[in-house]
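Handout for the seminar on molecular recognition.
Each group receives one record of this type.
Step one: identify the two inputs.
Step two: read the structure output and locate the region that could contact glutamic acid.
Step three: write two sentences on what you found, then compare them with the reference statements printed after the record.
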Amino acid sequence: MGDTLSTPSYVGRFAPSPSGPLHFGSLVAALASYLDAHAHRGKWLVRMEDIDPPREHPKAADLILKALDVYGLHWDDSVLFQSDRSEAYDEVLDTLLRAEKLYPCTCTRKKLAGLNGVYPGYCRHQRVIPSQPHGLRLLCSNQVMQFQDRIQGDQSFDLSSLGDFVLRRKDGLYAYQLAVCVDDHFQGVTHIVRGVDILDSTPRQLYLQSQLHYPHPVYAHVPVITQNNGNKLSKQNHAPAIPLNDPRPLIIKALRAFGLKPEPDLLMNSVEEILSWGIKNWSTRHMAGKKQILQDSL
Ligand code: GLU
Ligand code: ZN
């Protein structure tokens, strides 16, 4: 197996947003991070990224934790809820503001329409915090961010083409990019395994980590599961919740998504035995460079 499999201080995590129950696509992400952590004899943490109440469903966090438990994906330590972490986020925002690495942005949604999410820096020179509602953006340099992804290979992103990104939104909510970096650091996460749909968040997170003098985790972005029409399985595309009565067929289907080749009779075993098989046979090699896997091909 890979050369990193004897990392003694490995800490991995699964970090779902509670906008709905787990579907097959999110199970694949959860299982990949779980198997990678256990194959390295590391810790596997679960963090609930519940910082966006308008997009959340009140029962989703409980449903996700229940599903992980039924699927045998037992986490180490207690679950960290980002909704409890405001103080830590405020402290980091304050540090960045004092270092003049953040600036207030008062642009309206209308002004930013049609820019494809790339902010052209209209408020870059604004230093005084205005009394009207404003977001806080990270002042980004023009550097090219490079990293080696364990599955997707060499990556290179020009930060200037991503634009200064938001760390606190105009509606007062903390941005994902801020919370994820602060908490990955707080929890001592060394290895991040997640869906390739957020690959372009990684250069932003690497940049923010360096601004905060945090060490960089190692990244592996797994392919996303797609439907026949090419759409990725997601809550927006109404992917069904994973069944809780018998987890075994879907775990085996997820193992096949990783390019592993379980024998048909693995299905006769218990969930624990199937997961042990997955840990023993885990490898990222078969997914190299793959961005999508068609659900119907599994
Ligand atoms: N909470 C994010 C999501 O559900 C994942 C964040 C991450 O793994 O960095 O898409
Ligand atoms: Zn602005």
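Reference statements: The domain at 11-82+178-297 is CATH 3.40.50.620 (Rossmann fold). Residues 148 and 154 are 5 Å apart (CA to CA).
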